[in-house]
Amino acid sequence: MSVSGESRGRAQQMRDKAQQLSEAAERASDPQERQRLQEKARRLQEQSQQQDAGGDRDEFPPA
């Protein structure tokens, strides 16, 4: 697999985990736990976006 393909795979895994955390936050009854899970999901989502942006730089532009 190429480096950019691996980066996209990691970014997708981060997005999946962020989604799981968001869903867990919705189910959490404790407000502090809900906030913690939402923050963690937000950070993972941001990291996945940075990963995507970084992966795009590794590819060659079309000729």
Molecular structure report:
With about 60 residues, the chain is mainly α. The protein is built from two helices and no strands. It has helices at about 5-25, 30-55. Helix 1 (about 5-25) runs antiparallel to helix 2 (about 30-55). The protein is elongated and about 45 Å long. The two termini are about 20 Å apart. The relative contact order is 0.21. The model has no long low-confidence stretch (mean pLDDT about 85).
- Which structural class do you get from the secondary structure elements? mainly alpha
Which outline best applies?
A: elongated
Q: Can you tell me the residue ranges where pLDDT is under 50 for at least 5 consecutive residues?
A: none
Radius of gyration: 15 Å
> Number of DSSP helices?
2
Helix amount: over 70%
The overall strand count is 0
Regarding quaternary structure, what we see is single chain
Q: Name the helix and strand elements from N-terminus to C-terminus, one letter apiece.
A: HH
Instruction: State the separation between the terminal residues, measured CA to CA.
Output: 22 Å
Proportion of residues in extended strands: under 5%
Largest sheet: none
Q: Can you give the mean pLDDT?
A: 84
List the helices and strands and how they pair.
Blueprint: H1 3-27, H2 31-57
Summarize the structure.
This protein is an all-alpha fold. The chain has helices at residues 3-27, 31-57.
Summary tags:
mainly alpha, 63 residues, 0% strand
